UniProtKB/TrEMBL annotation, chain A:
It is a peripheral membrane protein. Keywords: Hydrogen ion transport, Ion transport, Transport. This is V-type proton ATPase subunit. It comes from Eruca vesicaria subsp. sativa. Its main location: membrane. GO terms for cellular component: vacuolar membrane.
From TrEMBL, chain B:
It is a multi-pass membrane protein. V-ATPase is a heteromultimeric enzyme composed of a peripheral catalytic V1 complex attached to an integral membrane V0 proton pore complex. The chain crosses the membrane at residues 20-42, 63-83, 103-130, 142-167. This is V-ATPase proteolipid subunit C-like domain-containing protein. GO terms for biological process: proton transmembrane transport.
Length: 351, 176
C-alpha cells in the first residue's frame, strides 16, 4: 500500500538500499570534475581518480594510458557494483535489476549486427560490447542474415525475445532496418518496464513512471530529429514512439509530421517541463539539445534519492554512473587531444 | 444481574471470567510491545549494516536507534510485571460482581494500551533510525538533528506506559 512501504521494505531490500546509497556518495562531485579538468595528460587523470572509488580499478594500469582503458576500467566498477547487488536481491527486486540490463543488451545486439554488416571481426566487436549487456550466445549474432534468423537462432533464448514480435520481418539487414529494429526493440522494452513498475506500485511506480516517461519522450524527440530528411515515412516514425509519457498521444501526432527542428521546438514548448529545456537553446541550434536532455535527466535522477524505501534508487544510481563514465570519457578525450577549451561543452555536473 | 437479558450477547460477555481478560491483557502488553521493538530493530539494523560498509564511522553512534527500540520492549515487560501483581483471588461468589469485572477490564485495557502504543512507537523509532543511519552516512551533521525526531517518537511509548499504569492503579478487586 502506498505510504506504508516503510514497514516491510527493509525485510528484503534494506541492506541493498543502504549499499546503493553508499555508492551514490562515491559519485564524483563538481570539485572532482574541476580537478580533472585541470589535468594536463592522462596520467594526471589517473592520479586524480586514484583518490576516488575508481582507484583500485586503475592502479595497475601500465603507464601509456588510453582513454578506452580508463572507460573500460570505470565500467568494470559499475558492473561489479551491479553484480554485487543482484546476487543479494530477492524477487521482485531481482527482476527490476534485470530490466536495467536489457537496454544494454539491445545496444550490444545492434552493435554486433551493424559491425557484421560492415565486415568487422566478431571478436573485436564483442570486446566493444557493454559488459552489462552480455549474454551467452552473443557471438552467434554474426551468423544471422535477416531478422527472422536473428530471432530464431539467438534471441529467442534471451530475455529480449518478447520484444521481437513487432519487428520480425524477412528483409535483409541494412543500416536503416537496423536502426528501426533498435528503436522498435527499445520501445517494447520501455513499455514492458513501465508496466512492470506500475505493477510494483507505491513509490517505485511513481518515481519510475516519471523517469521512464522522460526517457520515452527524449527518445521520441531524438528519433524525430534524426529522421528528418531521411526516407522514414510518418507512419513508420509514429510506430517507433512509446505508448506512454507526457507526449503520448497528442505530442506524438504533432511530432510525426515535423520536418525541421524549429517545428520540433514548437511542439515541445507546449509542455512546461520541456519548454524549460528548449528555452536554453537559441533558434536553429541543436548541438546543445543532447546536453540539455542529459542535464534534465541527471536532475530527475538525483531527485529519486530524496525518498526512501523504493527501487528507483537502483535505477537512478546505474544511470548516474553511466553519465559519470560518459563525462570521464569526454574529459579524457579532451585532455588527450589537447582541446581543454571544449571540456565544458559536454560535462554534466551532478552535485 | 438484572441489567442484561439472560440470552443476549451482553450476557455472554459478562459471563467471561475477569481473569481471562486480565491474562489476555498481560499477554498483549508484553507480546505486542516486543513485536513493535523487534520490527523497529530490524528496520533500523538492515539499513545500518548496509550503510556502515561505505561509512564505518556511523556504527557506534547509530546504535542509539537500536537502544531506543529496545526500550520499547522494556516498557512492555515492566508494565506486564506491574499488571500481574494486580491480580488477586476473589471467592467464586464474587467473581462476577461489577467490581471484579471492572478490575478485569482495567487490567485488560491497560495491557492493550501499552501493547499497541509500544507497537507503533517501535515502528516509528525504527523507520526514523533507518533514515538516520542513511543520512549520517552521507553527512554527519545530520545525525543529532534526526536523533531529536527519534526522541520525540520514543516519547509515544512513554505516554502509553503512563496511561497504562494509571489504568491499572484502579484495578481493585472486591474484598473477601
Amino acid at each position: 500500500m502506498y505510504g506504508f512501504e516503510a514497514l516491510t521494505f527493509n525485510i528484503h531490500s534494506g541492506y541493498l538500499e543502504a549499499i546503493v546509497r553508499g555508492h551514490r556518495a562515491g559519485l564524483l562531485t563538481t570539485a572532482d570534475y574541476n580537478n580533472l579538468c585541470q589535468c594536463e595528460n592522462l596520467d594526471d587523470i589517473k592520479m586524480h581518480l586514484s583518490a576516488t572509488k575508481y582507484g583500485s580499478y586503475l592502479q595497475n594500469e601500465p603507464s601509456p594510458l588510453h582513454t578506452t582503458t580508463i572507460v573500460e576500467k570505470c565500467t568494470l566498477k559499475l558492473v561489479d557494483d551491479y553484480k554485487h547487488m543482484i546476487c543479494q536481491a530477492t524477487e521482485p527486486m531481482s527482476t527490476f535489476l534485470e530490466y536495467i540490463r536489457y537496454g544494454h543488451m539491445i545496444d550490444n545486439v545492434v552493435l554486433i549486427v551493424t559491425g557484421t554488416l560492415h565486415e568487422r571481426d566478431v571478436q573485436e566487436l564483442i570486446e566493444k560490447c557493454h559488459p552489462l549487456g552480455m549474454f551467452d550466445s552473443i557471438a552467434t549474432l554474426a551468423v544471422a542474415q535477416n531478422m527472422r534468423e536473428l530471432y530464431r537462432l539467438v534471441l529467442v533464448d534471451t530475455p529480449l525475445a518478447p520484444y521481437f514480435s513487432e519487428c520480425l520481418t524477412s528483409e535483409d539487414l541494412d543500416d536503416m532496418n537496423i536502426e528501426i529494429m533498435r528503436n522498435t526493440l527499445y520501445k517494447a522494452y520501455l513499455e514492458d518496464f513501465y508496466k512492470f513498475c506500475q505493477k510494483l506500485g507505491g513509490a517505485t511506480a511513481e518515481i519510475m513512471s516519471d523517469l521512464l516517461a522522460f526517457e520515452a519522450d527524449r527518445r521520441a524527440v531524438n528519433i524525430t530529429i534524426n529522421s528528418i530528411g531521411t526516407e522514414l515515412t510518418r507512419e513508420d516514425r509514429k510506430k517507433l514512439y512509446s505508448n506512454f509519457g507526457l507526449l503520448y498521444p497528442y505530442g506524438h501526432e504533432e511530432l510525426a509530421i515535423c520536418e525541421d527542428i524549429d517545428q520540433v521546438r514548437g511542439v515541445m514548448e507546449k509542455y512546461p517541463p520541456y519548454q524549460a529545456i528548449f528555452s536554453k537553446m537559441s533558434y536553429g541550434e541543436s548541438q546543445m539539445l543532447d546536453k540539455a536532455f542529459y542535464e534534465e535527466e541527471v536532475r530527475r535522477l538525483c531527485l529519486a534519492f530524496e525518498q526512501q524505501f523504493h527501487y528507483a534508487v537502483f535505477f537512478a544510481y546505474m544511470r548516474l554512473r553511466e553519465q559519470e563514465i560518459r563525462n570521464l570519457m569526454w574529459i579524457s578525450e579532451c585532455v588527450a587531444q589537447n582541446q581543454k577549451s571544449r571540456i565544458h561543452d559536454s560535462v554534466v555536473y551532478m552535485f | 444481574m438484572s441489567m442484561v437479558d439472560a440470552s443476549s450477547w451482553g450476557a455472554a460477555l459478562v459471563r467471561i471470567s475477569p481473569y481471562t481478560f486480565s491474562a489476555i491483557g498481560i499477554a498483549i502488553s508484553i507480546g505486542v510491545s516486543v513485536l513493535g521493538a523487534a520490527w523497529g530493530i530490524y528496520i533500523t539494523g538492515s539499513s545500518l549494516i548496509g550503510a556502515a560498509i561505505e561509512a564505518p564511522r556511523i556504527t557506534s553512534k547509530n546504535l542509539i536507534s537500536v537502544i531506543f527500540c529496545e526500550a520499547v520492549a522494556i516498557y512492555g515487560v515492566i508494565v506486564a510485571i506491574i499488571l500481574q501483581t494486580k491480580l488477586e483471588s476473589v471467592p467464586t461468589s464474587k467473581m462476577y460482581d461489577a467490581e471484579s469485572l471492572r478490575a478485569g477490564y482495567a487490567i485488560f485495557a491497560s495491557g492493550i494500551i501499552v501493547g499497541f502504543a509500544n507497537l507503533v512507537c517501535g515502528l516509528c523509532v525504527g523507520i526514523i533510525g533507518s533514515s538516520c543511519a542513511l543520512s549520517d552516512a552521507q553527512n554527519s551533521t545530520l545525525f543529532v538533528k534526526i536523533l531529536v525526531i527519534e526522541i520525540f517518537g520514543s516519547a509515544l511509548g512513554l505516554f502509553g506506559v503512563i496511561v497504562g499504569i494509571i489504568m491499572s492503579a484502579q484495578a481493585t478487586w472486591p474484598t473477601k
